[in-house]
Amino acid sequence: MTASTTSHRFSTLSVAPPDAILGLTEAFLADSNPDKMNLSVGVYKDASGQTPVLKCVKAAETKLIEEEKTKGYLPIDGYTDYRNHVRNLVFDETIEHDRIAVIQTPGGTGALRVAADFLVTQLTPIRIWIPTPTWANHGNIFAAAHLEAQPYSYLGADRKSLDIDAMLDDLKNKTRVGDAVLLHGCCHNPTGIDPTAAQWKEIAKVVAEKSLIPLLDFAYQGFGAGIAEDAVGLRTVLDAVDEAIVCSSFSKNFGLYSERVGAVSLVASDADACKASLSQLKRIVRTNYSNPPRHGGAIVATVLDDAGLTAMWTEELTEMRERITRLRGDFIDTMKSTGAGHDFEFLRSQNGMFSFSGLTPMQVDELKNKHSIYIVGSGRINVAGMSESKMSQLCEAVASVMES
Predict the structure, then answer these.
(1) Do the strands 127-132 and 180-184 form a parallel or antiparallel pair, or are they unpaired?
(2) Where do the Aminotransferase class I/classII large domain residues begin and end (predicted)?
(3) Is-catalytic flag, 252?
(4) What is the per-residue pLDDT across 38-97, written as a single tens digit (0 to 9) for each?
(5) Which of 77, 217, 230, 330 is catalytic?
(6) Alpha carbon distance 393, 398 (integer Å)
(7) Which domains does the chain have, with CATH numbers?
(8) Residue 313 annotated as catalytic
(9) Of the candidates 138, 136, 175, which has an alpha carbon nearest to the alpha carbon of residue 153?
């Protein structure tokens, strides 16, 4: 006996639009051009075009395989050693540890979703203010959690600089007391444009005056200027407020993309508030994914538990960061050498994996269709996906679409 066609509920569903970034990867994989380039998804690639496994990670995994005794569940809040290391990396000794609740999450995306659910379930009514532009998935995550998101100014009209005056004006005059505000801790995605130390102080002052709850997306620690240096803005804000949420990721700085290693850290005004907040975070996790995966967090903890492996990690992280800086400089210099007259010098002050190129959606589309070079429609380029061997090819293609 077959069910009637009226009971085929799934047959009425429409196809969801592809993800703005991951959809490009699908198109890239289907492209038969042997010289194709994928500069869309935010992953680091070495000179051979591979996303490498760090040596410190390989060493930690060897140790884990030899010593691991169980595949049992982790606690809801995750691996204790890992959470302690997250606390140290993010906050150092700037905040009393009994005011910080840390939850291990499946990547930075998982951390953002847990944070969004916390804001909605515990602090409703609340809105969150997000920069224009921001990571494409921020809005999707907040919408899925039914957290109302509103935009605040960030990128200047020249599309090359931070409009700090407009940003501060929006945060002063558009927000309500008690709203949340999303801030990129470093290496702003998609622009690579970060506030200066002085601007962070201005931002922190407004956040404190309006009693805003800062939600700091801290996915690129170590990819800007250094591990401690990249925390300056975050710690400046935290120095001005008693409550905040930080979402961390180890996808980039440990190269652990597929292991999904992240954390949400909640800063409360005192130890009692911290305990209560932690209990609510655990409740949210329990009704979502229940327990975090063990392996990635254990890798991070194993590396940071060992002085030798930690030194190896910082060296490898420095090599990745410095190579990204060189690639950005090579792109700027090679664009000059094309003779097309297009000056990309403004990219030199940008930080991290991404650069906001200023290319229009039409030029981006032409790069894909004519040259098999894939970048995000906003003009964001993943500098960490460039290669020395294909730099001339890339720059000649960019010059050609800007002239057409």
Answers:
(1) parallel
(2) 35-398
(3) yes
(4) 988 788 988 888 899 999 999 999 999 999 898 999 999 999 999 999 999 999 989 999
(5) 217
(6) 9
(7) 18-54+310-403 (3.90.1150.10), 73-305 (3.40.640.10)
(8) no
(9) 175
